[in-house]
Amino acid sequence: MYASLLRSRFAEARHRAWQAAVKRSGLFITIAVAAILLLIGFALKERGHGHLSRIKAELGHSAAPRLPAAAKPGDQDAIVLSRSRTTGMEMPEFLSATLLPGRGMNVLQIEAYIPRMGEVNLLASPPLNEAAKLLSGTGTDADGSASLTMGGAIEIPWAGRIRGAESANGLIVNWRGHRINLPRSGEEGGHASGTVSTGGLLLKRPADSIKTTVMPDGGQAQATYDAMDFDGHWLSRTQVTTTVQLSGRALEISISAQNTGEQAEPIGIGWHTRFAILSKDRANALLKLPSALHEEIDRRSGMPSGRLLPVADTPYDFTGGSGARLGTMSLDDSFVHLKQGLMDSGPVAELRDPRSNYGLRITALSPAIKAMRVVAPADESFVSIDPEFNFDDPFGREWEKGEDTGMVVLQPGQTVQWRVRLEIFPLTGKAPGML
């Protein structure tokens, strides 16, 4: 009986407590909401001071991953020119360009928006942190040649390849009675590596001054290099200024070279780009080149034979309206004596990727650009199109007497400018893959 009475009173007490709690629920809710807001405010404050990851760790949670320090190829910060995508416009457009002033102003990456593909990288390049490791300036990159394997390297005081006589310190070439001692470098295709120097002497040089400007539709960056005599490898003294300007439809690059020394010097300039074929459908990618002559190559040495041949009715004819398919053909060839179309601002080359439904157009805006070198290995998904002042091996004896091989001669105080424009455009109104 007593046990029954105790259970009854306990039940009544529990019921009264529940009713009281229900009546005061508004207060409980208010207290709970206030506590949550206080916790959120505390977390935001600590995050702003960088303490949140430490608090997480102390509470037994895994800490947030620690971001690596910013990569600095050539010990200089990368420059990123960027812009916002145009609202309501379903057209290909450039979004950003990543430049490496510490590596001769290599254009490491160009990002674009392409309808139905989204934001994509147009150049065959590793991410910045990985690129910084490869561009070490040591080992196989001692001469800066790793710059030629990614992005778009600036080549000066010559572009492409120069062949010379082997010497104890590299190789020797002759120009107008002057002996020029160049560092020996590996050849891109593996040919004649012992007697060839490739890609100029700016590949790993850091900038002496850098200037950036924000613009309404993008931005501009300028780097100046007081290259002097390129560490004793060139005649006279040279100052190089590279300017890159980004907008939605175009990327313009201007390179000026001034002879600041006391004797004449030859100058060649080029931009060794590696454009990715985003669809990976290399065989159906289209290459279009301006009307030109083809440098015949001695396949044993990989260097020019000295003969310039017409391209009509040959595998090297890429002059048709939309160009020609790459198929399974490997290219490591130069095209010279460039001619511009009637309505063009200069000789034009294009790379079209039908499955990705976009194309890239390079216009050579400087009359001194006399050559375009194309590198497109059959087993790779990139195409390099290099607008250059000079032919391959411009000092070589293989050329006929009187042939202008493109090196610009600068007298003391003179300046020459190399300038190109890169544009992006749609191929059709169809979605990618709908051919």
Task: Please specify the SSE layout and strand pairing.
Blueprint: H1 2-23, H2 25-48, H3 52-58, E1 79-82, E2 93-100, E3 106-114, E4 118-121, H4 128-134, E5 152-155, E6 161-163, E7 165-167, E8 170-175, E9 178-182, E10 196-198, E11 209-215, E12 218-228, E13 238-246, E14 250-259, E15 265-267, E16 270-273, E17 275-276, E18 286-288, E19 293-298, E20 303-310, E21 324-325, E22 331-336, E23 348-353, E24 358-364, E25 371-376, E26 382-388, E27 408-410, E28 415-426
Antiparallel strand pairs: 1-2, 2-3, 3-4, 5-16, 6-10, 7-8, 8-9, 11-12, 12-13, 13-14, 14-28, 15-27, 17-26, 18-21, 18-23, 19-20, 19-22, 22-25, 23-24, 24-28, 25-26
What would a concise description of this structure say?
The chain is mainly β and 435 residues long. It has two domains: 2-58; 73-426, Beta-galactosidase, Chain A, domain 5. Helices cover 14% and strands 37% of the residues.
Oligomer: single chain
Major pleated sheet? 9 strands, antiparallel
**What is the distance, rounded to the nearest whole angstrom, between the alpha carbons of the first and last residues?**
91 Å
- As laid out across the biggest beta sheet, the strand order is 11-12-13-14-28-24-23-18-21
Radius of gyration: 31 Å
User: Count of DSSP helices?
Assistant: 4
Annotated CATH architecture of the largest domain:
Distorted Sandwich
